[in-house]
C-alpha cells in the first residue's frame, strides 16, 4: 500500500485544522475567546433583554418567564410592562420583533455564558418621565406607550437604536472571528428593525400625536436630541427631519435613516449606551430602564467606580 505523499498529508492536516477551528467557533461558552470579546458580547444582553420583554409583552401579553424561562436565568420580572392596544398590523410586526429578540438572547448565550435578566422598568411612568425630559416640560396627559399603536411605535423608537449604535461601536474592538460573525448578524437585524420603525414613523411624520400639539417628526427629533445630550458625545442620533446639513449628502431634510456625513452608522461606547438607557447621563448612576443598573463585567465595573 502506497504511503501518502507529503503534499497529501499537508492537505489532510490543513483540512482537519479547519474542521477543529470551525468546531471551536461553534462551541457554546467558547473558552478560547479573549475576555475582552466575552465582555463586549455579554454587555448588549442588557438591551436585548429590554427589547425582548417590551416586544413580547406589548404584542402577546407575556414575557420571557412564560415564553422561555431559562433565558431569563432567574432575573427579576420587569416592572410595569403590559400588553399594548395595537392594531393588527402593528401587533404582527411587534410579534416578529419579539421573537427575533428572543433569538438574539439565545444566540449570545450560545457563545458566552451571559447573566440573569436585570431589573427592567418598562412602566408607563418611566416612559412618561423620558418623554418629559425630551420635551423639557411635563406632557399632559403623561405619555403612555401602551395606549395605542402610534404611542407604542414612538416608544419603540426609544430603545433599539441605542443597541444598534452599541454594536457598531463594539465591532472594531472584537478580536475573534466568532465574535465578529455574531455581532454582524445581530447588527443586521437590529438595523432592519430600526429602519422599519423609522419608515413607519416617517410616513406619518407630519401627523399630530394626539392629544399633544406635536407632530411625529417633532417627537423623534426630541428623543434623538435627548439621547445626544445624555450620551455626551456629540451628534450620534438624528430624528426623521433634520437641517439639510445633516441629511444625506447635505441635500435633504428627510432623514429616513440616522447616519453620519458619509451615511455610515454612528457608533457608541458602552459608557455612552449606559448614560442613555439610565436616563441620567452618567454611566455610574443607574436609573431609567435599569433601576439597579445593568449586568455584566462592563456595566458593573462602572457601578463600582
Entry summary:
With 305 residues, this protein is an all-alpha fold. Helix content is 55%, strand content 0%. It has helices spanning 6-26, 35-42, 45-60, 64-67, 69-72, 88-109, 124-135, 149-158, 160-170, 177-203, 216-231, 270-277, 296-304.
Tell me about this structure.
With 305 residues, the protein is an all-alpha fold. It is built from 13 helices and no strands. α6 (88-109) runs antiparallel to α10 (177-203). The termini are far apart. The model is unreliable at 1-27 (pLDDT under 50).
The radius of gyration computed from the alpha-carbon positions, rounded to a whole number of angstroms, is 21 Å
Taken as a percent bin, the fraction of beta residues is under 5%
The SSE string, one letter per element, is HHHHHHHHHHHHH
User: Which regions contain 5 or more consecutive residues with pLDDT less than 50?
Assistant: 1-27
Assembly annotation: single chain
| Helix/sheet category | mainly alpha
| Average of per-residue pLDDT values | 91
Count of alpha and pi helical runs:
13
Report the span from N to C terminus.
69 Å
The percent of residues in helical segments reads 55-70%
Overall shape: it is globular
Major β-sheet profile: none
The count of DSSP E runs of length 2 or more, i.e. the number of strands, is: 0
Amino acid at each position: 500500500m502506497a504511503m501518502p505523499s507529503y503534499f497529501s498529508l499537508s492537505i489532510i492536516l490543513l483540512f482537519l485544522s479547519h474542521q477543529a477551528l470551525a468546531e471551536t467557533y461553534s462551541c457554546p461558552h467558547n473558552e478560547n475567546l479573549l475576555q475582552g470579546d466575552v465582555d463586549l458580547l455579554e454587555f448588549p444582553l442588557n438591551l436585548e433583554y429590554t427589547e425582548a420583554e417590551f416586544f413580547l409583552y406589548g404584542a402577546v401579553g407575556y414575557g420571557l418567564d412564560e415564553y422561555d424561562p431559562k433565558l431569563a436565568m432567574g432575573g427579576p420580572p420587569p416592572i410595569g410592562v403590559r400588553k399594548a392596544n395595537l392594531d393588527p398590523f402593528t401587533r404582527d410586526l411587534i410579534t416578529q420583533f419579539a421573537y427575533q429578540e428572543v433569538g438574539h438572547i439565545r444566540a449570545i448565550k450560545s457563545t458566552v455564558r451571559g447573566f440573569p435578566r436585570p431589573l427592567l422598568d418598562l412602566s408607563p411612568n418611566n416612559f412618561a418621565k423620558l418623554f418629559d425630559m425630551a420635551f423639557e416640560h411635563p406632557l399632559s396627559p403623561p405619555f403612555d406607550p401602551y395606549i395605542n399603536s402610534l404611542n407604542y411605535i414612538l416608544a419603540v423608537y426609544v430603545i433599539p437604536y441605542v443597541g444598534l449604535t452599541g454594536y457598531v461601536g463594539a465591532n472594531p474592538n472584537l478580536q475573534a472571528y466568532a465574535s465578529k460573525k455574531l455581532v454582524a448578524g445581530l447588527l443586521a437585524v437590529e438595523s432592519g428593525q430600526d429602519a422599519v420603525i423609522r419608515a413607519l414613523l416617517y410616513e406619518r411624520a407630519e401627523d399630530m400625536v394626539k392629544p399633544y400639539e406635536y407632530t411625529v417628526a417633532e417627537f423623534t427629533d426630541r428623543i434623538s436630541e435627548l439621547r445626544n445630550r445624555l450620551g455626551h458625545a456629540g451628534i450620534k442620533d438624528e430624528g426623521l427631519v433634520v437641517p439639510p446639513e445633516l441629511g444625506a449628502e447635505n441635500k435633504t431634510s428627510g432623514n429616513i435613516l440616522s447616519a453620519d456625513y458619509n451615511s455610515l452608522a454612528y457608533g457608541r461606547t458602552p459608557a455612552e449606551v449606559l448614560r442613555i438607557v439610565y436616563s441620567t447621563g452618567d454611566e455610574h448612576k443607574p436609573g431609567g430602564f435599569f433601576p439597579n443598573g445593568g449586568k455584566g463585567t462592563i456595566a458593573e465595573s462602572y457601578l463600582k467606580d
